[in-house]
Design a protein that fits this description.
- 40% of the residues lie in helices and 16% in strands.
- By secondary structure, it is α/β, with parallel strands linked by helices.
- It has one domain (16-177): 3-Layer(aba) Sandwich (Rossmann fold), CATH 3.40.50.300.
- The protein has a 3-stranded parallel β-sheet with strand order 1-2-3, covered by helices on one side. A two-stranded antiparallel sheet has the order 4-5.
- Helix 4 packs antiparallel against helix 5.
- The longest helix has 19 residues, at 64-82.
Length: 191
């Protein structure tokens, strides 16, 4: 079979789990997010350290804070409890912090070439966490009106200027590390 790389080594897996894309299940009355959560629950309840887990955009089907919190928790659980071989694709940049607090986590990003008037997606993977998204640029490429793109950039700058999500997550994790092994719910909005 084809591997889009110079080489690849992969040990024997007992199971391969994927959670890539989702749609509403109208027949059972489940929203896109509920389908996503059911599939994620199945993975977390059945994966082992010998499993290969491929996850794409966990938490995207709900509100930002809920989605980020679920994505963080799922990634953390896979890395520290199950310890399966996992590829976890996300646009939540806050999850880059996991590599600094969990020894067996590493960040990789897909390369992008930025030009003055456009970007080119190079589709190459390199070490390091991404620090920005290109959703607004994708909207421009799709043909959104320029006035919408410019307003989106203004809104983005304001959100980034006032966001304390990553700081709250770091604070919650450090607080948890000082305690015993019992599980504590993280509060990302704590002062």
């Amino acid at each position: 079979s084809f591997v889009p790389a110079k080489s690849a080594k992969l040990g024997i897996c007992d199971r391969i789990f994927t959670r890539v894309g989702a749609v509403d299940d109208l027949a059972t009355g489940q929203s896109t997010f509920m389908v996503e959560m059911n599939e994620t629950a199945n993975i977390l309840n059945h994966a082992t350290p010998k499993s290969l887990v491929l996850l794409d955009e966990i938490g995207r089907g709900t509100a930002t804070f809920d989605g980020l919190s679920i994505a963080w928790s799922v990634a953390e659980y896979l890395a520290t409890e199950i310890r399966s071989r996992t590829i976890f694709a996300t646009h939540y940049h806050e999850l880059n912090e996991l590599a600094s607090i969990i020894p067996n986590v590493a960040n990789y990003q897909v390369t992008v070439k930025e030009l003055p008037d456009k970007i080119i997606f190079l589709h190459q993977v390199q070490p390091g966490g991404a620090d920005k998204s290109y959703g607004i640029e994708a909207g421009r490429l799709a043909g959104l009106p320029d006035v919408v793109i410019q307003r989106a950039k203004q809104v983005m700058r304001q959100i980034e200027k006032h966001s304390k999500i990553a700081m709250g997550l770091r604070k919650g994790i450090k607080k948890q590390d000082k305690k015993d092994d019992s599980v504590e719910q993280l509060d990302i909005f704590e002062d």
